[in-house]
Amino acid sequence: MTAPVLVIGEALVDIVSSGNGNGSGRNGKNGSKATPGGSPANVAVGLARLGLPTELVTRFGTDPYGDQLGAHLFGNGVQLSPGSVDPTFRTSTATATLDAAGVASYRFDIAWEPPALSLRRGCPAVHTGSIATVLEPGAAAIRTFLASLADQPVTVTLDPNARPTITPDAESTWAAVRVLAASADLVKLSDEDCEFLRPGMTPDEIAAELLSVDRTQCVVITRGGEGAIGISRSARVEVTAPAIKVVDTVGAGDSFMSALIAGLQSRGLLGEVRLNGLDAQTLHDVVDYAVKAAAITCTRHGADPPTAAEHTATWG
Description:
Blueprint: E1 5-8, E2 12-17, E3 32-37, H1 39-49, E4 54-57, H2 64-75, E5 79-80, E6 93-98, E7 104-109, E8 125-129, H3 138-148, E9 155-159, H4 170-181, E10 186-190, H5 191-197, H6 203-210, E11 218-222, E12 228-232, E13 236-239, H7 252-266, H8 280-298, H9 308-315
Parallel strand pairs: 1-4, 1-8, 2-6, 4-5, 8-9, 9-10, 10-11
Antiparallel strand pairs: 2-3, 6-7, 11-12, 12-13
Pfam families: PfkB
GO molecular function: kinase activity
Protein name: Carbohydrate kinase
């Protein structure tokens, strides 16, 4: 690999609350704990922990939360694009409240305007998603950038990671997703995304919509504890999730996404190949690898994706 995977999107601090006031946190108050997060930032960390050189285009400040983010990203080997750390910018936050089953719901305090976007020669993949793809003015910059990659030898992946509290209009949000998906080779959705964006439709029907454009070659839909479905133009696979004791689900989808990209890279399916050669067995294997990475994250507190060594030690 001659250049890092490029990840574009928000980096923020998750303020995780158990909802019962009994947790212990960074400040020891109200059962809350401040931890580095943001879906694209989590994906970048997950990729780096799995051994892929990774560059993140984001924006956060030099306030205490920003210092915490910077230490976390640098400590995990993630490169930051120029302009990502901005002293004039206030670092964004997401307050995550956990229910009795450890499932998180979010409330956001965020602004998004990325630094200049560019593609390094040899970059194997560009990933984006979540709030960064719908919150202006940054969303427009991402749409323009992805459209400019149409003739570039790079694989594009997208995880919309819908946030109804930020974009409550499902119809307009789905329209925005379709625009971005038309520039992506692979689109990953969760079952919650599907229920919000396309209520009443099956995963296969949603995948068929996304695969109707020339560029998109594969759709993967996660189903929490039930595993995930992978659908390409020539194959459909279902992967079950291993039985685990869930601590919380924070960052599980992001761990899945980073492992999916890493699995595709290990099989030579990124870059100018753009998933060409993704047969049923390979699709099953990479989705299974991603499901197991997400499972490890669910056994931990917060967005804590596994390293390649941890994945191997846990699942072989």
